[in-house]
Every structure is written in structure tokens, then in C-alpha cells.
């Protein structure tokens, strides 16, 4: 971190500030005294340095971070890829393509069991399905809640697929005890108390990117979970809000290689919420594979026209068969090309 001091800063004030920085944050401070201004360079772990505190000091003119504000998620301190492994042997981030699929909302036993069987047959290794739904309108279907969780567990028993489902409140953590991967939805990406509590669990957490979040804010939310002791975070790009109205959100595919460069965490892409349109899911899934995603999360419904939520972006099981087959084939071809050309 670089701190530029105001030209009028006296030597005594500078010495006091340096002593405070060294004591407060356990960093070493190098000083360059120039003609017009003086610059301090902080060396050491600056992730804990409170930028607001520094900026509020009378003699500070400006500050600039040269190191990212996150440490646990940072690839610089953890060069190898994190691979999330489940007790059933499923792995995310190990170089294979992992597909999570299922309905937006769990609606009934028949529905979830049927979809679970179909997505499994197509190669999905996780079943997704919302039991607690974050809906924009309080009058829309809010999910089957604890009954939905029970239905997901039933479908897991039927198919052996581990389940991924969204949590909306820290008060529900105990209730989610036997969920395999807990999803934090876009709307809760900055629910810091929820993130903090999830950091105390040993569950893999699928952290979706917030509707209007920068990549750094998203990684800082992962850092919240990891700072609590839970390193098992999977990032999910699901589109961000832009001025474009042709799609539900704008899929930021460049986020995939960027986040994989900055962090060591697995990154998956959700083309369903990103586009809001089922006919775009295939192409965006393939683009995500080419962009280096570790996996895909795709909404699949037995009868999209009558879905209680997100029908327009849901694939039928037949459509999903095709998308999954193409995505696996593309991944294989891509890996072969990489091997040949390198
Ligand atoms: C979902 O996965 O069903 C969901 C609500 O996603 P998001 O948080 O990305 O909108
Ligand atoms: Mn949905």
C-alpha cells in the first residue's frame, strides 16, 4: 500500500503516523521524501489496514493499494487450484466439467424425482432446486421451504445426486445440516452476517455474484466465508445488471478467467439466470466451457410452461440432454486442443 502525504506534513507528524501504522497493523514502512511530497510504502500483510482510518489522518493526501485486499482467496498465497470434494466422490475444480442441474424451485415429489433422474442420466453430478426462494414480489411463490428440503433429500436418496440449495437466513443453517452444497444467492452476496455464520460451518458454499457487484466485491464476500475458517467456496457467475434489456442479466464471461487468475477457487457459470431465456442457455453454456469454467449450473424443469418460477429460462429434460452432451464434448475437445498446441 502506498500512502502519499500532504506537502505541509511535518517530520514530527510523519514519524507519529509511521509509528501508529507499524503498531496498529504490524507492517514495515519505507519512506521516500521528495521535493513536493512524501510517500510511504507499507510492506507486509496490508489486508487488515483500514483504508478509512488511513484516509482520515490529517497529513494523508491519498492512498493506493498495490496488493489485493483479500488474502485467503488470493492465488498469490495459494497457487494451486482448490478442489472441492464431496463424500460421494464428486469433485469441483479438478479439471473435469461439473454440471449442477434441476428446477428453479422444488414443486412436488414427482417433479423433483423425475428431473433428478433425467439430469443424472444426462451427466449432471449435482441436483439443484430452490426450497427457499428469493422472489422480487412477496406475492410470488416463495418455495416449499422445509418441505422442499425434504423433497430434495428424497430425490438424493432416489438418485444418489448430492443437493445444492439456497439459504436465505443464518437462522436456517441448522436446518440445512444435511444439504451437500449451500448456495448463497445473488441477492444475499453481501449479507455479511450470513457469510460470517457460513464461515463457521464445514459445508461447501456456492457463492453467486451479486446483481451489481464488482469482481473484487464478490471475492471479498468469499473472503468473509474463508476468514471464518471455511475454505470450501465455489464462485458462480450468474450475470450482472447492465443497461441491456435483451437478456435478463448480462453474462460477464470475462469474469471467469479473471476470477480464476485472482483466486484459487473453482468458478462455475449459471447461463439460466444470466440470460433469462432458455434458447440462449446452450450457446452460453458452451461459451462458459470455452472461457474455462469448472462447471455449469442449469435450470431444468419437467414442464417449463407451468413452472412456478423461472419457466422462461428453464430447459426441458430433452433440451438439457443436448446441452449437457455438447458441453462435455466441447470440454473434451478443448482439453485435447490445449494439449496439442502447448
Ligand atoms: C437460483 O439459483 O434459483 C437463484 C435465485 O439465483 P440468483 O441468486 O443467481 O438469482
Ligand atoms: Mn431460478
Write up this protein.
The chain has 2 domains: 2-64, Phospho-2-dehydro-3-deoxyheptonate aldolase, domain 1 (Alpha-Beta Plaits, 2-Layer Sandwich); 84-341, Alpha-Beta Barrel (TIM Barrel), CATH 3.20.20. The strands form 3 sheets. An 8-stranded parallel beta barrel has the order 7-8-9-10-11-12-13-14, surrounded by 5 helices. It has a 4-stranded antiparallel sheet with strand order 2-3-1-4. With 342 residues, the protein is an alpha/beta fold. The protein is built from 10 helices and 14 strands. Bound molecules: phosphoenolpyruvate and manganese (II) ion. Manganese (II) ion is lined by residues 104, 273, 299, 309-310.
Summarize the structure.
This protein has 342 residues and is of the alpha/beta class.
End-to-end separation = 37 Å
Which of globular, elongated, flat, extended, rod-shaped describes the shape? elongated
Tell me the count of domains: 2
Structure annotation, total helices? 10
Uncertain residue ranges: none
Largest sheet: 8 strands, parallel, barrel
| CATH architecture label name of the largest domain | Alpha-Beta Barrel
Any idea of the CATH topology of the largest domain? TIM Barrel
SS strand fraction? 15-25%
Tell me the helix content: 25-40%
Let me know the number of strands.
14
Order of helices and strands: EHEEHEEEEHEHEEHEHEHEHHEH
* Overall pLDDT level: 97
Q: Write the CATH homologous superfamily of the largest domain.
A: Aldolase class I
Q: What CATH first level of the largest domain would be assigned?
A: Alpha Beta
Gyration radius from CA atoms, angstroms: 23 Å
Order of adjacent strands in the largest pleated sheet: 7-8-9-10-11-12-13-14
